User: Fold these one by one.
Assistant:
Number 1:
Amino acid sequence: MPIYHKLGKIPQKRHTQFEKPNGGLYYEQLFGTIGFDGMSSLSYHVHRPTQVKEIGKALDVSPKIAVEKNITSRKFIGFDVAPKDDFLEAREPLLVNNDVHVGLAAPRKSLTNYFYKNADADEMLFIHKGSGTLKTFLGNIPFEYGDYLIIPRGMIYQIEFDTEDNRILYAESFHPIYTPKRYRNWFGQLLEHSPFCERDYKLPQDLQTFDEKGEFLMKIKKQGMLHQLVYATHPFDVIGWDGYNFPYGFSIHNFEPITGRVHQPPPVHQTFETGAFVVCSFCPRLYDYHPKAIPAPYNHSNIDSDEVLYYVDGDFMSRTGIGPGYISLHPAGIPHGPHPGTYEGSIGKKETEELAVMIDTFKPLKVTENALKIDDGKYYKSWLE
Ligand SMILES: [Fe+2]
């Protein structure tokens, strides 16, 4: 997160004695990425954050691959993913490679009886249905429909939902998730042409400090395994912190679309970048205004990226047979484009209410067994007259 933030109490100078009111010292922790070269935060803990008591059995949660090498365009009926009580068990990885796992989850219950950390991946949670609060050791972030939650690797968190009706698109990214470099100046500040700015971020707030000893279960995802560690102190024992490495939220409704006289290419919708994929937000917007404009996209041959589009809400101008929660996969290697009739049918239209999230990966995606269960099986023929 390329802005500075701080919460709670911190010492005047880093790496110096920070005394508790009743004696003893707070324990400093550097929480960083990319060795000591990436963004980092310094947090101050009531207890040493290293007190592992037990290590339990690890569970293999790696995705089960059904199609290793795919060239089939596919459509997945996302709301057919069955709700499950547990936040992690609800996750169904659908499209995966070594860079990212993309999946859906419909968790019914809040995650409050253990703590969770993804040690390998930054997590992006896109909230399609539901609301609640993301709770972390660096503060809390209330979320609602349309929010992206970006949770850097290593963040310990819990999540509280307001109801049992929750639908989440998630990406576990093995590369850090950043805002696009071209939106930022050399200091990191978002530029005037960026479709969003720092004011749009939902930063952690309401830091709560728990000075508790006992048994605290933490499930840690690492190398496809879910490890279970029991800590002797409450993981949310931070009295204060500052720095650049922390979770944040951003509402898709705050993305300001860039439009033009003629059709604008997908990069104008870009919201996040990594070294291996991009995330774009397709939001309600006015259509192209050249007198001869064709609002529907041209056919395009994304020869070296797999294109995953998650349909959130509104109408989907260039597609037929698409509803909320559907995912389309347009694999690298073959062109795709508007469905029959939609190219001509788009002429003269002034605006769209479409809302969608796109994830384009630079390396091919594998299709999981979970994905095949919700694959409509015939989408690849949907461009025939
Ligand atoms: Fe496309």
Number 2:
Amino acid sequence: MALYKLFRPFAFALEAEAAHRATIGALKLMPRRRLPTFPASLASEVAGLRFPSPVGVAAGFDKDGEVPDAMLSLGFGFVEVGTLTPRPQQGNPRPRLFRLAEDEAVINRMGFNNGGQASALARLARRRQGIVGVNIGANKDSVDRIADYAVGVAAMAPVADYLTVNISSPNTPGLRNLQAGGELVELLAAVAEARPSGGPPVFLKVAPDLEAGDHGRIVRAAIDARIDALIVANTTLSRPPLRSRFAGQAGGLSGAPLKPLAQDALRAFRSATGGALPLIAAGGIGSVDDAWDRIVAGASLVQLYSALVYHGPGLARRIADGLAARLAERGLRNIADAVGSG
Ligand SMILES: Cc1cc2nc3c(=O)[nH]c(=O)nc-3n(C[C@H](O)[C@H](O)[C@H](O)COP(=O)(O)O)c2cc1C
């Protein structure tokens, strides 16, 4: 925290996307270090993978897979890179990223800016340790979006500890339609077909903006297609009351104001799965309490992004240590014993 307190005023003096680029640049310069160890009570197995800590970095922070090792060495139990599309693309015109400091929130309409799967593949092939998931999406100008996901699964499987099928970003027009009934079944069938045998588990990332009947339908489609876990949730298009002058910007809202919505979505998915499908929580997680609340509501793992902007990467370690302390207070041996216990 001390180091980030020094860095933050410089980062906040820059336009938000420039600050993010500077952060990635600084992380790239970090000397390679051995991975940290975590209290044994935090290690758990989810979708066949052994996670040393349940606190991970959400997609979008390291879109091109430039700094997964640095993030792991700073105290994250896993890192999700991406979203990566088959072909490189620029994303939306800038400015497209806004810090809502008064609300501890972020609005982004990046639009899947990324260097494409081939260049990330080469970078990720060189790394060896830790759990790194690869989040995949469709190109904006693609004529067959479902085919883009099949391409992504086949291309990125060799370097991914898990894959995330992201159909919930609000900044690619029409992408969220893939969450609808028939389209979802067709998409997940194509993904299942593209999975190499013995390949990594596949997660599905959903939006927080769903209607009452959607949760059960998505869960049934996911289970039928052998999806291994759900990530709940992406950014929201809704606008709870906000104070910042950027509140009216178009895009997906994340951070503290997303918390109640993401927590409700998690509960809805937990009741729809009955525990049959692992859940990974994201959305407004910024403290030990936030992470604990999601875990007892049914999340096996948690991810964060926006809180990093306000509290720095040391937050991951502080949350992990806080979770271990909470397990000890309650006499629980392992984090898995707390999942869904609330
Ligand atoms: C600037 C920014 C870019 C993001 N890009 C992606 C992305 O490319 N793919 C994705 O699945 N989610 C993306 N997300 C969503 C996050 O992964 C996460 O689901 C969401 O921000 C909620 O978590 P948070 O409140 O901790 O930020 C992005 C979020 C932000 C703030």
